[in-house]
Each structure stands twice: as structure tokens, then as C-alpha cells.
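Deliverable D2.4 — example input (C-alpha cells):
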């Protein structure tokens, strides 16, 4: 038995040392080809860029109140399919149901009034917590801005005296758009705009802090930050100020280089931030927050500081702000219509004349993971009884006004354009005239860029639409271009800020990102493809206005249509939309009719117009 086992083991050992595989044989001949497969489905046809868009009015609501800001800031509440619009004339919010919004254009978008509203009102007092945690009753003035996140509505309300602190009112909205009051939170002076962060964790408020017209009271501008926890606002807002919370990111500067107001002002002026105010005005009083947009990750925000020609970068983690000057537009490189005296569209380049961008509304979007800011470069001046920077170029050399002398080059341009009736008509700032005080004026600085711009997250310019708005509007509207929103009279804003780009928003349609910009005075709507911010392209122009209507109103009067002042609003209902103030883009996924929408509030005509925007 043992011998047999040893023999078996020996055989196994010998076999284990041998390879069991033989050599490979020669490759066989190739087999016959298989049958041809069937034709696959056709691919989608390619689309040229920029893509053509079809813009149509699909609904319109008219308050019937003219020249009193009866339709200003607009928002959209998806659960109730409602547009919300501030009616400052009645100090209420119009809730406009869009549930049955058609997909076909209305018969006449200019006179349509197919939409109706239900008023949303609020009390004239509210109770807020003070720093000690005690309840304080405060009087409420005019609503300035609204924001909606989910079913939460926030309303920014100024005090009856604008230099006093305002409040934010919070409401829970139901499926019909009705609101249940939650609480009020005190914020800074003149809360002019507010927005939720994309994650809903905060409400940011731009407290403009305008002075009274006599400059007896000039509150500080600031940013209020209201934290939200499980949809409930904190009792107290945090404040980001323009003094101790201001930072400068340059590694060449130490904190001690900007630890006083004088140091901060000096650094900002050297960077190009415009200061225009009475002597003794602090940086925090000078800077007036206008409009806020927030990054997609809710960690940073940007705020326009319009009069100062700057944008502030807000760090919501460190609760700081850095102010960046926007620079100047060289009108020697672009065409501009600078006078209203000829009453025609006429353009020229103007060497040594510059525009301050001074954006009002701003918005933001993502490209390649980075945030880009778009700005509507309206322009604005400080023009109060006790202080005004607002002058015409002719005033500079008028012996009874500033009594300065133009440089040889500027005087030659002045004469060549028609003198007092030419360049002399252009409104410019007195704050930047003759900075070295030698009596010689070399350059002029006008308000606004008459354009929209794209900026990177550090506020470096990526794109500007240049002179597009003026040239496109003139080509389409002829001598009606640069008309005011108070009468149909063409060219009567060329000497001021042109059509005044006021409202802006961005949205995605069929995988392309578009910027929508509306001009406050002339009413034009411009659409640009900004998908790649470095290759922005003009796409479309639209205007919902009839220039044949004969009317005149004055929105500075208590009665804008007062016949005793020679005014007549009889044909305003025939004129269409006047004074677009805000734009809200609604993506197709949220839209009541399944198409992307634009909701535009028009403050002078008191109308809210709903457009659908689709690819042709």
C-alpha cells in the first residue's frame, strides 16, 4: 500500500512539472461578413448661434394709475402661479394670477388688460425686537421691494420718514397667494431692495440710506443680513457697515492702512470710486447700496453702489465688504447722441468725454463654475436742495456758473459739436470737474454707460455692450429713440442718460443663458446670449409701446396728470408700457403655460406685462 502511494505521488510530481498546454495552431480564415444593420434614428438638426427668439405678450395687468409707481418690483410665486407686483401708489402688492396664461399671444399687447389682481395689503405699524429683546412698535411707510423663496414672502418697507430705519415683513403664502403674517424685523434706513440667498438661509437687504433733501440728516448706507432657521427669520438682523466691516484684499495693504474713515476714503478715491456730497460726509454716508445679487453657493454677494460708480463684494462668511470701482467708459471709442436740441438720432465719438457705468439692477449666473455679474448701467446723480452735482457741460464755462475754461482740445470739440446746443447740453457731474483746481477742465464725466456689462466675481470687466443700445434703438425706432417715459417725444433723453438701462435679469432657454435688459425711459427690451460671458452676442430687441399716442405727464407732481399744469393722460392707456422698473425671469419648468416667461413691472404706465420667450 505504501509503495503504491509513493508511486502515485511520484507520477503527480512529474506531471506537475510539465506543461499541459500544447502549441497554438494557425489562425483560421476570416468568416463571411454579417448582414448590414438597419438605419438608426436621425439626429437632431444643429442650431446656429445666436438663436432667434420669439417674444410675445401673453398677458398684461393694468392698474389704471399713471406716473405714481403703481407697478414697480415684480416676483413670481410658483405654488399659486402668481406674479406679485408692488403698487406704491396704493402701498399694496398686486397678486396677479397666471394659472390660465395662454400660449398664444394676446391680440394687442399694448392695450391688453386680460389679467386681474387681488390686493395684498399690510398694516401701517409693526412690532419689532430691539437689541435688548424688547418689543417696539414702529410706523411703516412705503413698500420698496419684495422677494419670494418657496412660500415665504419678504417685504422691505421704509419708515414714513425715509432717513429712519425701516423693517422687513415676513409672510407665509398659501396655494392661492394669500399671506399669513409671521414677523417683522428692523433693518437700516431706506431698505431699497432685498433678496433671499439661493439656499434660503438668509435675507440680504440693501439699506440705501439717502439723505433728506436739506442734508440735515444723512444716515449710513448698510447691508442687513437676516438669518433664516427652518423658514423662520431671526428676531434681529446683523449689519455689514461701510466702516469697520470694510476690507481691502490687496496684500500690499495692512489693516492699519484703512482703519480710519479718512484712510478708507483716500484709498477708494484713488481707486476711482466717485465721491459727490457736502464736506464732512463719511464713507458710510456716501455709499448707498442699491441692488444685491448672490452667488449660487450663497457664500458671496454683490451690491451695486450706483451713485459712487462701484460694486461691493460681500463675504457672507466673514461678514465683510470690499468696494470696487467700475472705471470709466471712453466715449471717444463709441458712438453717443449727446444733445436733444436737434430732435433726431445723431451720433459721434467724443474724445475726452467719459461715462460712469453706475449700474442700478444687477444679476448673476454661473459659467465654468464661476460667478459672473451682469449690470444695467443706468447712471444717477446726487441732486438734492442742499447739494447737487448735476450740471450741463455748458455750465462749466458759463461765467455765472462754474466759470472754468476748457482745455484747447475740449473747447475745439465743444465748438465742433454746436457749442451750447451740442456738447453743452450733455449732463455731467460737477464733482469731478477740475480735480487739480487749476481752472482748466480737460475731461467731462457723464452719467451711466448706456449699456449693460458683464463682470467677473472680482469685478473685472469681461464684456460691455458699448454703443449697441443707442444704435439699435435708433435703427428700429427712428426719431422716437431716446424718448422719455412721460411723453412721446423722441431724442429728449439724449442729453441726459439716453434710454437708461434700468432692469436686468438672466435665464436659461434651451440650454443657452440670456440676459434681458429693459430701458426705463424709452421702454426698449434687449436680449443678449451671455452663455459664454467672453462671447456675448446681441439676439433680439422688443418694445411694447405705441409712439403715436399723444400724452404728457409729470411723475414728480402729486397729480402727474394735472390739467392745470398743462398735462393730459387721456391717451396713456393707448401708449403701452412706460418706465420698466424690474424684470423677473420664470423658467419653463416653473411657468404656468410651460414656456419661459418674463414678468416686467412698468412704473409709469402702472402695468405688469407677461411675455413668453421661445426659440423660433
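Example output (designed residues):
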Amino acid at each position: 500500500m505504501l509503495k503504491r502511494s509513493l508511486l502515485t505521488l511520484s507520477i503527480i510530481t512529474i506531471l506537475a512539472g510539465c506543461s499541459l498546454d500544447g502549441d497554438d495552431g494557425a489562425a483560421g480564415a476570416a468568416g463571411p461578413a454579417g448582414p448590414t444593420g438597419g438605419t438608426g434614428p436621425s439626429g437632431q438638426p444643429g442650431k446656429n448661434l445666436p438663436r432667434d427668439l420669439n417674444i410675445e405678450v401673453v398677458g398684461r395687468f393694468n392698474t389704471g394709475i399713471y406716473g405714481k409707481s403703481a407697478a414697480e418690483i415684480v416676483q413670481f410665486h410658483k405654488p399659486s402661479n402668481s406674479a406679485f407686483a408692488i403698487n406704491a401708489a396704493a402701498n399694496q402688492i398686486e397678486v396677479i394670477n397666471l394659472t390660465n396664461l395662454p400660449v398664444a399671444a394676446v391680440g394687442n399687447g399694448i392695450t391688453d388688460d386680460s389679467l386681474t389682481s387681488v390686493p395684498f395689503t399690510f398694516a401701517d405699524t409693526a412690532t419689532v425686537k430691539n437689541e435688548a429683546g424688547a418689543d417696539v412698535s414702529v410706523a411703516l411707510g412705503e413698500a420698496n421691494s419684495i422677494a419670494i423663496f418657496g412660500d415665504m414672502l419678504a417685504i422691505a418697507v421704509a419708515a414714513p420718514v425715509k432717513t429712519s430705519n425701516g423693517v422687513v415683513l415676513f409672510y407665509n403664502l398659501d396655494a392661492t397667494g394669500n399671506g399669513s403674517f409671521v414677523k417683522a424685523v428692523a433693518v437700516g434706513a431706506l431698505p431699497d431692495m432685498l433678496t433671499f440667498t439661493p439656499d434660503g438661509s438668509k435675507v440680504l437687504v440693501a439699506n440705501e440710506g439717502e439723505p433728506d433733501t436739506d442734508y440735515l440728516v444723512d444716515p449710513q448706507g448698510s447691508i442687513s443680513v437676516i438669518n433664516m432657521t427652518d423658514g423662520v427669520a431671526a428676531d434681529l438682523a446683523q449689519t455689514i457697515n461701510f466702516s469697520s466691516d470694510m476690507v481691502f484684499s490687496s496684500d500690499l495693504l495692512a489693516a492699519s492702512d484703512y482703519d480710519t474713515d479718512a484712510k478708507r476714503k483716500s484709498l477708494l478715491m484713488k481707486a476711482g470710486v466717485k465721491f459727490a456730497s457736502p464736506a464732512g460726509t463719511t464713507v458710510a454716508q456716501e455709499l448707498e447700496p442699491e441692488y444685491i445679487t448672490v452667488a449660487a453657493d450663497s457664500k458671496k454677494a454683490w451690491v451695486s453702489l450706483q451713485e459712487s460708480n462701484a460694486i461691493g463684494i460681500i463675504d457672507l462668511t466673514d461678514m465683510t465688504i470690499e468696494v470696487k470701482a467700475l472705471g470709466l467708459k471712453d466715449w471717444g471709442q463709441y458712438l453717443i447722441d449727446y444733445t436733444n436740441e436737434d430732435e433726431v438720432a445723431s451720433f459721434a465719438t467724443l474724445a475726452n468725454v467719459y461715462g460712469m457705468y453706475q449700474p442700478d439692477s444687477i444679476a448673476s449666473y454661473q459659467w465654468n463654475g464661476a460667478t459672473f455679474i451682469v449690470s444695467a448701467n443706468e447712471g444717477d446723480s446726487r441732486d438734492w436742495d442742499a447739494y447737487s452735482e448735476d450740471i450741463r457741460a455748458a455750465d462749466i464755462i458759463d461765467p455765472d456758473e462754474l466759470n472754468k475754461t476748457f482745455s484747447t482740445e475740449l473747447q475745439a470739440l465743444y465748438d465742433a459739436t454746436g457749442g451750447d446746443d451740442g456738447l453743452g447740453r450733455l449732463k455731467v457731474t460737477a464733482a469731478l470737474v477740475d480735480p487739480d483746481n487749476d481752472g482748466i477742465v480737460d475731461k467731462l464725466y457723464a452719467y451711466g454707460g448706456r449699456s449693460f456689462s458683464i463682470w467677473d466675481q472680482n469685478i473685472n470687466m469681461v464684456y460691455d455692450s458699448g454703443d449697441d443700445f443707442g444704435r439699435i434703438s435708433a435703427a428700429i425706432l427712428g426719431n422716437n429713440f431716446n424718448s422719455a417715459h412721460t411723453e412721446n417725444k423722441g431724442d429728449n433723453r439724449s442729453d441726459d442718460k439716453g434710454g437708461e438701462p434700468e432692469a436686468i435679469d438672466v435665464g436659461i432657454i434651451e440650454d443657452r443663458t440670456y440676459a434681458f435688459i429693459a430701458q426705463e425711459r424709452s421702454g426698449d427690451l434687449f436680449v443678449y446670449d451671455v452663455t459664454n460671458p467672453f462671447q456675448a452676442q446681441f439676439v433680439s430687441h422688443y418694445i411694447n409701446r405705441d409712439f403715436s399716442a399723444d400724452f404728457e405727464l409729470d411723475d414728480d407732481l402729486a397729480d402727474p396728470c394735472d390739467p392745470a399744469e398743462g398735462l393730459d393722460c387721456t391717451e396713456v392707456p393707448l401708449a403701452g408700457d412706460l418706465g420698466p422698473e424690474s424684470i423677473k425671469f420664470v423658467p419653463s419648468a416653473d411657468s404656468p403655460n410651460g414656456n419661459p416667461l418674463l414678468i416686467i413691472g412698468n412704473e409709469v404706465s402702472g402695468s405688469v406685462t407677461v411675455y413668453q420667450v421661445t426659440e423660433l
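Residues 70 and 87 are 4 Å apart (CA to CA).
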